[in-house]
Amino acid sequence: KSEATPSTPLTATTTAPLSDNNMTMNTMKRRSRLRRLLGFADGSGKASQAALSRLDSDDVPEAEVSSTSSGVASHTSSNGDLGSFFESSTPAEDPYQDVRERMEELAAKDRAMFATHDEPSQLHDLSLPAFAAYTTYLGYAVLIVCGHIRDFFSRFLGGRYSSRSSTFASDNLSLYAPLLKSWENFYTRRLYHRIQDCFNRPIASNPGATIQVLERVSDDGNKTMKLLGTLSDLDNDSQRELYSNGDHFVAVSDDRVARQCINLGSYNYLGFADDWQVTCARDVIASLDDLPVSMSASLNEFGTTTRHRELERLVARFMGKEDALVLNMGFNTNATTIPALVGRGDLLISDELNHTSIVNGARGSGAAIRIFRHNDIDNLENVLREAIIMGRPRTRRPWNKIMVVVEGIYSMEGEYCDLANVVRVCKKYGAYVYLDEAHSVGAMGPTGRGCAEYCGVDTADIDIMMGTFTKSFGGMGGYIAASKDTIAFLRQRCAGSANHNSLSPVVCQQVISSFKVIMGEDGTNIGKQKIQALRDNSNYFRMRLQAMGLHVLGHYDSPIMPVMLYNPTKIAAFSRECLRRGLAVVVVGFPAVPILTSRARFCISAGHTREQLDRALDEIDDIAGTLKLRYKTSIFG
Question: Taking 90 as the threshold, does the pLDDT of residue 179 lie above it?
Answer without folding.
Answer: no
